Amino acid sequence: MSNQYAENFFEVPTALAANDNLRHTVIKLIESEPMPGKVLEDDNENRLQIFRNILTELANGKICLATAYQWTEVELSMHTSLYRFNFQVFSDRWAERLVRTQFSRFYNQAVLKQLLEAGVENCFVPHSDAEKLSSTCTQQLAGRQHPVAALYTRLIDSYSKGKWSRETKIPNHPYCTDVVRPASESD
Ligand SMILES: [Zn+2]
Predict the structure, then answer these.
(1) How remote is the CA of residue 166 from the centroid of ligand 1, in Å?
(2) Alpha carbon of 20 to ligand 1 centroid (Å)
(3) Where are the beta strands (DSSP E) in 47-176?
(4) Is residue 1 part of a domain?
(5) In this predicted model, what pLDDT tens digit does every residue of 17-37 receive, in sequence order?
(6) What is the 79 CA–ligand 1 centroid distance (Å)?
């Protein structure tokens, strides 16, 4: 790990434990940003709030990923959803995919936001050992620098506004392990 940033998704908890500033930014985003999607929809934002709490515990290192999947599956049970018995919404391993997508999204959003605010133009996406070489993100994102503003805009469009485009983004799919970090001289 390059100091206080993760090189891939599985290093995110360690990076957040070491980097107070980044962890605070992640938690602020978890508490405030929209998370469009049918699993979290209801009439009073109760499900959204439950999920914000689970992600906050995860970001604070109080629970691990596996526990976050379990809590999500139990507390956001399909039987209490507007979309109960919709097996496209609640397909196999839905809770794991939801946690992984949003935890990655908030980590990357926080890093990109800090870089943007610091006026940094480029970030770096390291190669992730956990990603298939054939995946789109490995081929189009990993191992090179990218403009911070472009990745940030695509992330917000997809994950905050729910406007999905085919452009390669970070995270690029629910099991995406690619993350952004500040670029260094050797990148
Ligand atoms: Zn990926």
Answers:
(1) 14
(2) 25
(3) 122-125, 144-147
(4) no
(5) 999 999 999 999 999 999 999
(6) 32
